[in-house]
Amino acid sequence: MSDTSFDSRTYETDAQFGDYYALLKPRVMTLVVFTALVGLLAAPVAVHPFVAFCAVLFIAVGGGASGALNMWYDSDIDALMRRTAKRPIPAGRVAREEALGLGLALSGFAVVFLGLATNWLAAALLAFTIFFYVVVYTMWLKRSTPQNIVIGGAAGAFPPMIGWAAATGSIGIEAVLMFALTFMWTPPHFWALALFVRQDYDNATVPMLTVTHGRRVTRVHILVYTALLAALAVGTGFTAIGGPVYLAVALVLNALFLRGAVQIWRRDEVAAEGDNFAVEKKFFKLSLLYLFAHFGAILVEAAAGRLGAW
């Protein structure tokens, strides 16, 4: 990785608080926080509100640390992509060394204090998640294989499992199901994005599936993974973390998601470029709602179960 373009002597603008906050990828952190919270509250044990708050806070900090380390390492290719060129490092507002220091410091802080606040299994899972995202995905997979987002998606799937472990001190089948739901959702979500920002990945020579195999193959992969995801998501409705509310949400959203995947699969490339990939962008936006709605339904089922127990 070349970093000659990011010499610290080129930083003439004083960084603001918002620049350091942006290093933590706050939009991604929102998903981390929410799924971790659901994992914690869906666990079959009562957790003191203060302990729950601390657990979610430290998981969020760990997620933010991963984002800072990702931006540190990827600053060279971020500068080449229109979607990421305005991030703090390529825009020249924060030095790479500062991002590295912030990421390492927050990583250590989050892992240690999560262990002290909850248990060391949860802390170990958080440490492994940071390692997986930064080393396995960012440093290795992202630049070496079109399967980068498939394997690397595990990093974003760990938060609900960490939340469950923070509450119970163990990993149950329910935590594995929440992990699997996020893991299977990640490829169609990111491949939909890759369809309409392919030029960015071309410019940065990142081997996304759209670059190495083309958009036609990517469309097929989206359809296949969406079908597998739908089977998993609906099937989860018949497990301990499911129920009538979850099942209703899963049936509606997966029908819409499958419909969108079929529309993407049928797309003609000329037509897609002609309407600026409107169908692909719609599917991408739906994918954001998809995961939040499924985990929100799991949270509703957990709350209903506790009320029923009273």
UniProtKB/TrEMBL annotation:
Pathway: Porphyrin-containing compound metabolism; heme O biosynthesis; heme O from protoheme: step 1/1. It is a multi-pass membrane protein. The chain crosses the membrane at residues 28-44, 50-73, 94-114, 120-141, 148-167, 173-197, 218-238, 244-262, 283-304. It is an enzyme of class 2 (transferase). GO terms for cellular component: plasma membrane. One of its GO terms (biological process) is heme O biosynthetic process. It is found in: Cell membrane. InterPro entries: Protohaem_IX_farnesylTrfase, UbiA_prenyltransferase, UbiA_prenylTrfase_CS, UbiA_sf. It holds the Pfam family UbiA. Keywords: Cell membrane, Heme biosynthesis, Membrane, Transferase, Transmembrane, Transmembrane helix. Its EC number is 2.5.1.141. Its main location: membrane. GO terms for molecular function: protoheme IX farnesyltransferase activity. It catalyses: heme b + (2E,6E)-farnesyl diphosphate + H2O = Fe(II)-heme o + diphosphate. Belongs to the UbiA prenyltransferase family. Protoheme IX farnesyltransferase subfamily. NCBIfam families: cyoE_ctaB, PRK04375.1-2. Converts heme B (protoheme IX) to heme O by substitution of the vinyl group on carbon 2 of heme B porphyrin ring with a hydroxyethyl farnesyl side group. Interacts with CtaA. Carbon 2 of the heme B porphyrin ring is defined according to the Fischer nomenclature. This is Protoheme IX farnesyltransferase. It comes from Citreimonas salinaria. The gene is ctaB.
